[in-house]
Specification:
This protein is α+β, with helices and mostly antiparallel strands and 194 residues long. The chain contains five helices and eight strands; from the N terminus they run αββββαβββαβαα. The protein has a domain of 129 residues: OB fold (Dihydrolipoamide Acetyltransferase, E2P) (Beta Barrel), CATH 2.40.50.
């Protein structure tokens, strides 16, 4: 009887050890990861919201590029914000520096409100940035300094989706900003080296 209990204990321990080793060796993959043929997203997932909408206000202390800023709030905390639903040219890309400068002219040293509901793969909060109620993300698209990032349009309200799409179409028709080029390279293609 003792030998049977020992073997049972041994078999159970071995099974648990095997299960824990197998679990730790499996590769983790991103849920809702886009197919390899779609634009490379800079956000975490395409879900509508990963958490309830949160808001905070703070002063913009820096602009990293045409769609990323750093905000410092009254509680002495600093946040990196990825502007929601837009994708601006990269630093080494045509109009990358102009896009960054345009965003900087709009909001550096200004008190903004950030409405966010998720983080991207770099830990940045992804959100809409408002200055006195004005949508700065939309202003970047209107100025021809960013694309409406349609990969994430399902996360926008129907009203915002239409506003951003119309703003991009208007900037394109007026050949404003990056649309002065007949076929500007999208940031997601640029990041993939195309």
């Amino acid at each position: 009887m003792k030998e049977a209990n020992i073997w049972l204990l041994f078999a159970t321990s071995a099974a648990l050890l095997f299960a824990s080793c197998s679990a730790s060796n499996t590769r983790t993959r991103q849920v809702n990861a886009p197919p390899a043929t779609s634009p490379t997203p800079r956000y975490e997932s395409r879900s509508r919201q990963t958490s309830p909408l949160s808001k905070f206000s703070g002063r913009v202390v820096s602009v990293e590029d045409g769609d990323s800023i750093i905000v410092h709030n009254a509680a002495n905390r600093t946040y990196t914000i990825r502007l929601h639903a837009i994708d601006a040219p990269e630093g080494g890309q045509a109009f990358g520096n102009r896009s960054r400068q345009n965003l900087s002219d709009l909001i550096v040293a200004e008190e903004v409100t950030v409405e966010w509901s998720k983080r991207d793969r770099y830990g940045r909060r992804v959100g809409k940035v408002l200055l006195d109620g004005r949508d700065i993300c939309l202003d970047q698209v209107r100025a021809g300094m960013a694309w409406h990032y349609k990969y994430y349009q399902a996360e926008q309200s129907p009203e915002d989706r239409k506003l951003y799409a119309d703003a991009e179409a208007e900037a394109r028709a007026a050949r404003r900003g990056l649309w002065i080029d007949a076929n500007p390279i999208t940031p997601w293609d640029f990041r993939r080296g195309r």
